[in-house]
User: Fold this.
Amino acid sequence: MDSGMISKIEKAKRYSEEPDRVSFERFAVQFRGTHESHQVTYDRGAWSCTCEFFGQRGVCSHTMAMERLLDPMLTIQMGSPSDPVSEEEVAR
Ligand SMILES: [Zn+2]
Assistant:
């Protein structure tokens, strides 16, 4: 293996220990629950799940479990980047 590739692999190992470098924008997963599977999606801070409980409450065990799993990579997204108030504050 060439030295260029070896240095990239070493860098990848360091990166993989720093999940806060990554912030998810959107994804979809199949979540295998106790009784059936559900599709959980995430789009710029907004969760969605196909289960009945999420439909009633807007949050469910599946989305909360995903938040826990991916926590360091999701926290950066919590403040809405498209919020016009915060953009105004940045411009000042
Ligand atoms: Zn759910």
Residues 48 and 58 are 8 Å apart (CA to CA). The longest helix spans residues 3-16. Residues 3-91 form one domain. The chain has four helices and three strands.
